[in-house]
Every structure is written in structure tokens, then in C-alpha cells.
Amino acid sequence: MRIDILTVVPELLESPLSHSIPGRAVKKGLVEIHVHNIRKYGLGPRLTVDDYCYGGDAGMVMMVEPVFRMIEELKAERHYDEVIYMAPDGEILDQGIANELSLKENIIILCGHYKGIDERIREHLVTREISIGDFVVSGGEIPAALLADSIIRLIPGVLTDETSALSDSFQEGLISPPVYTRPASFNGWDVPEVLLSGNPKLIRAWQDEQAIQRTRERRPGLLDENV
Question: Which has the closest alpha carbon to 105: 155, 153, 158, 68?
Fold first, then answer.
């Protein structure tokens, strides 16, 4: 899989995508991550990528031409399954979207900045818009890193134990049950006996019960969606 991320602040993406699971995936050759500085196609001697907003609103808007030229350059080299814009008013990222995108071959993620991007980019170049929640951050770089991480960990071979991703929260429409590790007792706090029983059937039943209980307490809307 190849992920191309377009941004005016590439430094914000260097650390999140070069360490831990994404970094290991790159080293294994399972994914390519390319971060592109949109200023490469900035206009004039200062490589300008933003301008004042038509209509007099406050804030600067990312210009259509630099983004258009960069996307056209990338598309000339390969086919892209999606051109995704990280937008506060896009569809809310969930596990289903991450699962779907993990099956793609090549995707572009466009990070907005300043006031946003020229609407013509959204109308003519973007194929999908994704949000990480109903709030606004300074730019699309951190949301892009979150999206990329959620996709990369699902690619076969990335995780040491591929079944781990299958038991993550939201994969089956439920929150994951609690997990424990050694020691079995600490400071008077004990691991539930069923997890020490060695009986897979009992353990699975306990985990299913805990997952449903936690979901009912913390995210009851998920249960309504699965009815």
C-alpha cells in the first residue's frame, strides 16, 4: 500500500509516521508513506500557497493551483483509489472506514490548514472527506496521521499477531473487554479468576459478556446500531 500525504507543514508528520507500528510497517516494506510539501508548487518567489478569503471573511485560504498541480503530478505516476481531504465536516472516521481503506492500494490524504482549502479543490479533486470528530484543530496533519495509523495497523503482516486487530474495540460493533497481564495479584488487586482458568470457552464467554456490558455503559449507541 502507498499513502501520499499533502501538507504545508510536513514536519508535523515526521515523528508520528516514522516510529512504532507505522515505522515498522515501512521498514518491512508493507507500506510506503510519502509526505509532500505543497509549497513545492507555491506561487511566486515566496512560494505562496494561501491567499485572502473572497467575501472578506477572516483567515487565509489554501489556493487551488498548488494543490491541483501536486495532485496532477502524483496521478501521472499511478492510479489512486481515493483522494481524501481531512475535513471537520466530513464523515466521522470509524473502524469500518479504516477497514475499508486498508484494502486500497494507493491513497492521497490532503491536509487543510489556515481557514481551509478553496472549495473548488473539494468539488473537483477530492473523492472523499473524513473527519476525526466534531471539533476543529489547527490543521489536517494530526488527523491525517491518525487516519494513516488506523489503516496501516490493519494491513496483513504489520502486527506481529494479526488476530490482535480483530479483537480491537469497534471491530464487532462493541468496545473491547478489559485486559490484564502479570502479576495475577498486585496491591490486593486481583485478575479475574476466569482468565486464569485456562478454559478458552469460559474465557470467551466472559469476554463477550464484558464487551457488551462496557458498550452498554460507555457507548450505548453502538448497541442500537447493531439491533
Answer: 155
Q: Are residues 142 and 61 in the same domain?
A: yes
For residue 79 the three cell numbers come to 492510479
Domain count along the chain: 2
By three-state DSSP, how is residue 46 classified? coil
The reply to whether 110 and 23 lie within a common domain is yes
Query: Does a structural domain hold residue 159?
Result: no
Give CA–CA dist 105/81, Å, rounded: 7
In the chain the beta strands, taken as DSSP E runs, fall at 2-7, 32-37, 50-52, 60-62, 82-92, 106-111, 116-117, 128-131, 185-186, 189-190
pLDDT at 57: 85
Strand partners, 48: 43
pLDDT digits (tens, 9 = 90+) for 2-31: 999 999 999 999 899 999 999 999 999 999
Structural domain span for residue 173: 167-225
> Is residue 158 assigned to a domain?
no
**pTM, to two decimals:** 0.88
Burial of 6-41, coded b for 16+ CB within 10 Å and e otherwise, reads bbbbbebbeebbeeeebeebbeeeebebebbbbbeb
Same domain, 42 and 140: yes
